[in-house]
Prior knowledge:
- It is a single chain.
- Helix content is about 10%, strand content about 50%.
- By secondary structure, it is mainly β.
- The chain has a single domain (about 5-240), classed as Jelly Rolls.
- A hairpin with a 4-residue loop joins strand 7 (about 70-75) and strand 8 (about 80-85).
- The protein binds ligand FJE and fe (iii) ion.
- Fe (iii) ion (FE) binds near residues 52 and 62.
Amino acid sequence: MTSRSVRTVTECVEQSEGDGAIIKRCLGEDVSDIVDPFLMLDEFVVNPPTGFPDHPHRGFELVSYILQGTGQHEDFMGHKGKLKMGDVQWLTAGRGIVHCEWSFGQEKAHGLQLWINLAKEDKMQEPSCQEILADNIPRTSKEGVEVKVIAGEAFGVKSTIRTRTPTLYLHFTMKEGTSLNQPIPKGWNTFVHVLSGQALFGPESKEKLIKPTQTAIFYAEGDCVIVQNQGSIPCSFILLAGQPLKEPVAQQGPFVMNTEEELHQAMEDYKSCTNGFERARSWQSSFLQSSS
Ligand code: FJE
Ligand code: FE
């Protein structure tokens, strides 16, 4: 097996988004070519009573993973609920969703939101949502390395999430002094984002030390990722891999299509509440209703 090497290390950029929320953008449009099919990774911190008021999405999937605290969400399909620590919401926006994401209770909510692009033929499908509660996320450990399998398979354990764009989403926690060799499907793009501790990523003599707030994107050549935790505390990180779509991307904020024309159509459809946005005409989240 040949190990993949780190190609680029990015530092998160902190910015304010939505209504008082703070996000650290870990992956943005500048690197979307080398992380295709991934569009964005944000580490968010939402302090009560803030969040992201009613807004649309079209053409991609959004994966929210709560690391700490509780988040609330509500969408125009009538789907509404709370996400607690360790829970995952896998939302396929498809032709259109309008939703609201905000804090719950007194405690700040901290988590990750990943945007995964959809293939041309999947962009206009009906929106759908999969949720797995923390206790139901398959997990296992081997030689001091724990893995939670959010999507795909690791250490012989499979996730129940149905991905449209083939994706591997793993959350590893490596004890001090442990190492890991994770196979990555041929040709898939892959990156890691460290949450706590630190670890060495890549083949011997070419390994790079990655720390919290950093994201390491790997070269597409090779069939595994090698990790070593030589630090004095455990290292927690997420590893993503996805089959590249190799399709043109036309993006404007929450709309991600293939052409400028489709992009204008998406904005027009949202404005006029048509072509999948019909329900936006009469819907407002209870969050906005209670604050107006
Ligand atoms: C969005 C700006 C935004 N990262 N992480 C522009 F902030 C958003 C948006 C989010 C978001 C929401 C959560 Cl809960 C967590 C996030 C960006 O809602 F959609 C656009 N277009
Ligand atoms: Fe959203």
